[in-house]
Write a structure and sequence with these properties.
57 residues, mainly alpha, 93% helix
Length: 57
């Protein structure tokens, strides 16, 4: 049973390293695209409303 305990320790260390890397990477990507995404969503809603008013959709 000792060898399984060793592998669980290695797995936990690897899991923690990956968790930190993924969290920081996702946070950086979200921070980078947030202003552009807000503008694109506003344009989409505006264009959709204009199309509804004109009877095109």
């Amino acid at each position: 049973m000792e060898e399984f305990h060793l592998f669980s320790f290695v797995g936990e260390a690897f899991d923690e390293a990956i968790k930190v890397f993924v969290t920081e990477s996702v946070e950086n990507v979200i921070t980078a695209i947030k202003p552009i995404a807000k503008i694109l969503v506003a344009l989409y809603i505006s264009f959709y409303g204009w199309m509804m008013m004109m009877g095109l959709f």
